[in-house]
Amino acid sequence: MALNPFKYCSGLRVLGYFMILLVAAIIAVSYYAVVVLIWGPQLLHGGLRSVLSISIVTTFHLLLILLTWSYLMVVFQDPGSVPENWRPVMQEENMETSSMALSGYVDPESRNSTASPSEGGRQAVGYCSRCQNSKPPRCHHCSVCQRCVLKMDHHCVWVVNCVGAQNYKFFLLFLLYTFLETTLDTLVLLPHFIKFFGDAKSRSTSPVINLAFALSLICFLIMHASLLSSNTTTIEVNEKKKAVRWKYDLGWKKNFEQVFGTKKVFWFFPLFSKEDLEKITALHGLDFPTRSDVEA
């Protein structure tokens, strides 16, 4: 009997639940150090010190809310899965669907399996032998989740979920706000950290933890910013290197809008406008526009 190493990947889901507890513990330690222990008590001192304390505590809570909101959205938002018996609509079927739309009727199956007219009705469709189903472009099978994920970037043990088409924005915001929060914590606790060995009563390891997180996150942020600007997932990096022109790279602005939407007011929040969800097909993970100078 052949050994299947992927069956052990499901154990990563158990590890993921511990990682969620670790995230909560780090947030709790930071909150205690910044708000309860150091800057909270100084709110009543008056003067410039009190004004500085109000600014720090307010900024801390604002970032904490955005961080937690983004994190929960990554954890609970489905990254996107392939509809059962999904298949792309060919050009002839697309024309037939358009005719039926004019008459007021559209086949429900056609709604769930669309191809962009700009691609000439052709899509790079694969097939997953494990799921026994067709795979849309940029879709990959996750051995941990045991299913195909739309525009899969990677499986993240920190969120016990895959990062894909429908939660990639939330993941990026989580990285951004975590980096800003940990950087803020490091800066405001720096004087306290300098006195680490001088005052035994006020010792805290929070500055060390936050500094380590901030340094590790900056590299991760830079990497994903580069991937975002070229409309590439982590899985597609090697595929892109082999291509003369990356067919999904439509320019940094359009690439950004395929993940964050076109409404600027929603860019910094883990949600999308109704208009973007209706117009940007890439957000659903089944259909992606490609460059006109590259064969799809």
Describe this structure in a few short sentences.
The protein has helices spanning 11-39, 47-76, 91-102, 108-111, 168-188, 190-194, 206-229, 237-242, 252-260, 274-279; strands at residues 126-128, 133-135, 140-142, 147-149, 154-156, 161-163.
Total number of strands: 6
- Write down the domain tally: 1
Share of helix among residues?
40-55%
Mean pLDDT: 81
Name the shape in a single word.
Answer: elongated
In whole angstroms, the N-to-C terminal distance is 40 Å
Q: N-to-C SSE series?
A: HHHHEEEEEEHHHHHH
Helices, by number, come to 10
Q: List the uncertain runs.
A: 1-8, 91-122
Provide a descriptive summary of the structure in words.
With 296 residues, the protein is mainly alpha-helical. It has one domain. It is 49% helix and 6% strand. The protein has 10 helices and 6 strands. The strands form 3 sheets. It has a two-stranded antiparallel sheet with strand order 1-2. A two-stranded antiparallel sheet has the order 3-4. It has a two-stranded antiparallel sheet with strand order 5-6.
